Each structure stands twice: as structure tokens, then as C-alpha cells.
Amino acid sequence: MRAVEITKNLQQAFRRLRKLKFFTAVAVITLGLGIGSSISIFSIVDALLLRSLPYPDPGRLVLLWGNYARTGSIERRGASYPDLNDWRQQSKSFEGMASFSAEDWKIRSGETSEIVPGEIVSSSYFSLLGIKPVLGRVFTLAEDQNSDNSLAVVLGHRIWTRTFGSDPGIIGKSIQLADRPAVVIGVLPPEFRGLTDEAEVWTSTAFVDRATMTNRALHSFPVVARLKPGISVKEAQNEMRIVAQRLASAYPATNDHRGTEVIGLKEDTVRSMRSSVLFSFAAVIAVLLIACINVSNLMLVRAEGREKEIALRYALGATRMHTLQLALTESGLLASGGLLLGIVVAYWATPTILLFNPIPLPGYAHVNLDFTVLAFSAAITAVAALLVGILPVLRFWKSDLNSALSARTVAAGPRQRLRGALVVSEVALVTVLLVGAGLLILTFQKLIALDPGFKANDILTLHLKLPAGQDVDVANQSMALLQRVQAVPGVLNASLSSDVPLDGHASASFYTSSQDIAESAQKRPRAFLHRVTPDFFSTFGIRLVAGRWFTATDMASNRPFVVISKDVVKRSWPSVNPIGQRLQMGSGATTTWYEVIGIVDNVMYRGIPGAFPDNSDVYLPLSAPVEEMAMAVRSERAADLVKTLTATIKSFEATTTIYDVATMKERTSDQLSIPRFAGLVMGVFAGIAFILAFVGIYSVMSYLVFQRTQEIGIRLALGARPSSIFLNVISRGLWMGITGTLIGAACILAMHKLVASLLFGISAVSPLIIGLVSSLMLVCVVLACYMPAHSATKVDPSVTLRHEC
User: Fold this and answer.
1) What is the pTM of this model?
2) CB 576: neighbour CB atoms within 10 A?
3) Averaged over 698-722, what is the pLDDT?
């Protein structure tokens, strides 16, 4: 009996919707856009934040960081190999620990070589993660030890396929890794890219030199560990705090003020992208709510048009519950149509979002419409059906609809208030979205307007890796290479350096000035070191503030000269001429005093606006033997010189490997890609919401005018001016608009801390943005009310009164 009743309700609802084709199409399209956008963004949320890491029992995997306490802040640092050994011996919370660190390797295959990302790991790394090779084996404990013999290497599936042709006999063969012989012992599964998420080659700690393995002061890598069953992250953190205190007492020179942070591997993996992903998801849910409000308003209008029919049904014995079931069946059909359309929208929209998304997703995050996403789709469809269908029915639930059978009209006040409340909610949601989009767009504009301290146009950068073990007389060899490059037609200037802005290769050191030598280690500032040839500053257009740059003589003499940025001056010599002053770099027995010979502008080396805004830069002559260098070439046709420069460099040294080739304009654009994309996504969602709000306000105001046609006709017949009728309609709309914008502004004030992390150079409660958005919303309301208000002034009183009579 129940199934028959449901079937009957479905047939009746379907017939009604089929008769109202335009209404049904508008409702389905509106819901489809909202549901489809929600599915698309949720599939990304599911892949990044909800899905487990692809390792056995991933909840017990944690990372250990050797953080350093400085005055006013805690800096995240890695561990040293001696610290790792002590952590293993003194802790009882872990089943095991393993070191891992990123390293780029040069692999030679035949006559060609390439630079590939890799990891240096201890032997327990793969067993902790539960990774088993598809060919061969992984490292043993004995292979952790430094050896002069052939070293072991494990290949990733991609490089095994790409470079070695998926050769099943690769196991046991020797390859050239960093110009050293290495024996391939295993090949890993295709989905595994290491904890750095980009590795293609793995080597054991046997590749690490003995001095590094015994240096407790070199804190350079994180540690992955697996908790014992029943041990929480908090319990492990408390134990490691005690271990860190013991090490600080035993080795104060290297471990004083140093602690240990224990954090879940999944949490550490997604922490940098969680805010932006959840912000986008909240925005798309707001769009879905606006779509539901619009369709709910349409359903409410339809329900009021069917008021006498509903009253007649009650008079003939129908129950209110039956009416509710019929209404929810109708809204369920609309929502189901929206779901089908939404799945199509998500199918096409999700790949587009991923294509333009500048945030690299972790290797485990495969975005697809799986069971979880489909379950979410079903859930939001049910919620949408409830939101769309319940309000019209509840509006009449307690009303005396018998009066509809004997009266031509019923009081419209409560119904108008309900529709008005829906419009106010809609305006509030759109206000929040538009303010969010405005803040992100203004953030992007401020980032574009930043002066990075260098000129990005017409500069090509490329990195060079020279043969290992080759002693490079930089004073002569680099100058000879530069002279050959500068002779290439079209090259205006060229330089060599240890790194270039925005490439992420700079190393850092603490420093102190001669007048602050007694300063405690915790208060000493950090500077990033850049070794450069004399033409480096002119090539990048870095402005000289005082003193001079390096010369060829400085490089040849290897004198301890340094050029510093203005941040160093501000920190160390705010009221003294720095030229000729001395700066100490390094720590312990490896400190060196340098004489300041020049001051240059601050440069955004590590990012725009900068990953470490309080850290400074110092420049030293490129006068020591180096294996890796970066070349920068200024030319009006920089992007077209790649092949010519490659041939020129190869003719100078045939075994040189060239990699990471990019123009500075591309590097700068990459830095701005995330705020650009965030502003674009929010702008699209806010635009959709704005259009939906405009249509919703227009439809509500049109119906209100239609409902008041008789009243307006009588008022006009009694002498009311058309202008007063016009202003009356506009004022009703403005009241709803002002109320909605005020509620939206209050929501922004309540959420400003959540948004602040995504912004730069602007407050989350910017009066300018809030004022502009509020004004825009009020203009939108006025425009949406204009046509209904204009129509109200054209009501013919005689026709209205004759119809009434």
C-alpha cells in the first residue's frame, strides 16, 4: 500500500512539473549549477583532506622535526644524524624511525644525462611505510654505512620506464649516479613518489659523507616514524620533549633551545593547502544555498497560486501530511534532475579546475567521482530537496485555508515576510562571497604591485651541474664561460651564481656584526647566502645603494668581502655607515669575518611576498670550487636563446648537465599563480551567486507587485501618484537589501580570522571592500526592483476595479 501511494505521488508530481516546463527547467538548471559546483569542489576536498594516506595503518605515521626556539618564535628545523640515533635509543613510543631528505641526482644513461629528484633514506624507511618493490629488494641495514665500493640505488617506476625502458633485467646492473657507480637493487611501485612526493631515485645514507653523519650541528632533514599501537601523538610529543631536554643538557653547543615536534604525517601533508581548499568549499556551499533559496521562492509562489486547490483537497479529506509528502516528492524530482545535471557539470568542471589549479596535489590525491563523492552528492540532493520543498508547505501548515474557498484574497503579510527573509538571506550570502572575492582579487593586485627588488623581464635562468670531482677554478673558468656566453648574439649581460631569485636553492647562516658579537645565539638573525660573479647585480637590475659591487679582482684574490642587503643594515647598523664594517658568518669553529663593501636593495629571493620576510641576504664572491651553479642571461629575446646557450655551454664543457630552465617572468608568474587562481575561483562563484541573487530578487519583487495589483489600482484610482507607487516598491526592495548587506557584513566580521591567512597587504575587514560590495548589492537590488516598480506605475485602475467587480 505504501509503495502504491509513493508511485501515485511520483506520477502526480511528474505530471505537474511536465506542464510547467519553464518553471521546471529554471529550477533544475539552478539546482544543477549549485549541486555540480559542490560535487566538483568536494571531490577535491575528499581527495586531499578526507582520504587516508596510501600506507598500511596510516594513522600511526608521524613526522619528527627538530624545532629551534628563537626569541619570539619557533622555527621548524630538521634533525641531525646523531640526534636521530639518540631519539631511537631514548624513546619508547615508536616502532621505528627513518631519515629522509630530498636530493637531486644526475643520472647518466649512455651519452645523455638528466637531473632527477630523489631521496636519501635510511634502510627502515620503506618498511615503516609498508612499501614493497615490484622488482628486486630495498636497502638493508648494512647498506646504510658509508662505503668506497659500489653503492646501492632503488629506482622509481617512472624513471625505470622512461630511462631504462622497463628493463626487467635492470636488477644488479651498474648505473652512473652523480658520476659514481651505483648498483640497482630494486624498482618501486608506480604510485610511490616518496614523502617528498616527487622522488624518482632512492639512495641509502651510504651516500652521505662521514663528516655529515657525525655532525650534530647539521639539522637538515625530517624523520618519519611509526607510533606503537595505543600511543597517541600527544603522548609521543610529551616523551620527545623530555628526550630533547636530555640532549640539550648533554650537548648544549648544538641542542640548547632545541625541541622536537611530533605531527601526524597526514596533517603535515595537507596543512599548507587546508585553508584555501576549505575556503573554496564554503564558497561553493554558499552558492548551493543561494540556488536552493531561489528555487524555494519559486515553489512558494507556486504554492500560493495553488492555495484554493490545496484548501479544496483538505475539504475533500486530504491530510496535511499528504500535502507535505506530495510537495517533497515534487521538490525531490527537481533536486534529482539537478543532481543528474550536477554530475554532468562536475564531470566537465573538475578536470578544468585541476588543469588550472596551480597547487600541486599530493601523489595519493586521485580526484574522481568515487563512492564517497556520490554519497555526498546524494546527501546534498536530499538536503536541497528538503530546503526547496519544506518552506512552502510549512507556510500553510497552520493556516486556515478554508477561508480561501470563500474569499478572493487572503492576508499576504506573513507570506511576504517569509519571501523577504529568503531574499535577505540570499543577499547576505552573496555579500560574504563578493567580499571574499574582492579581498582575494585585491591581494593579487597588491602582490603584482610589489617591487621584488629585481627586474624580471628579459632574463633567462638555467642551472648547470658540472662533473663531480672536477676542480673548478671559478675565477678563471667561470669568467671564461661567461665571456663565451656574452659573445652569443643578442646577449646583453650574463652572470653565474649559486642560485637565482625564486629558485629555492639558497642556503642560510646566522650572522652577527662586530658590535653585536656578545649577542646570544637565539637572538642572532639569519641571512641567506648567495655566491655571485661581478655581473650578477647588473644582470638582474638590483640597485646599488652604497659602496660597490664585486670585481674580477675580488674573485681572483678570494678576499673575505661581502655585499649586504638593506635588511642587514637595518638590523646591525641602523645609525652607522656599514661600509668597511665587519660581519661574522657561520657558527662554532667555522665562523668567518667578512668586510662589507656594498649595500643593495632587498630582493624577494624566497617568494613573493616571501616565505621568510624577516630574513636578509648577503652576497659573497663566487670564488670557491662548486659543482652546481645558476646562470642568468639578459636578452631582449631571452626565451629564444635556450638552444643556442645550451650548445655554447656544451661546447665549453660537454659533460655539463643543464636543467631547471625558465625565464624570470615565468618564475615570477608561478609565484603569483596561487593568489591569481584563488581570486579567479572566488570571483566565478561570487559571479554565479550574484546572478542568482539578481534573478531571485527580481522574481520576488515581480510577484509582490503582481500580488498587490488590486491594491495599487485602488490607490491610483484614489489619486496616488505613480512616483509614490514606484518609490514604495523600490523602498521595499532596498529594505531587504540593506538588511541583507548588514547581516553579511556582520558575518565577515565574525569570520575575519579564518580569511586573514589567505590575504596580503589588506585587512579581512577592509572598509573599502565592504563598502564597495554593499553599494554594489544595493545597486543590484534597485535594478532588480526597477522593472517591477515601473510595471506597478502602469497599472490601469479602471481595468483593475472592473475585474474586481
Assistant:
1) 0.80
2) 11
3) 75
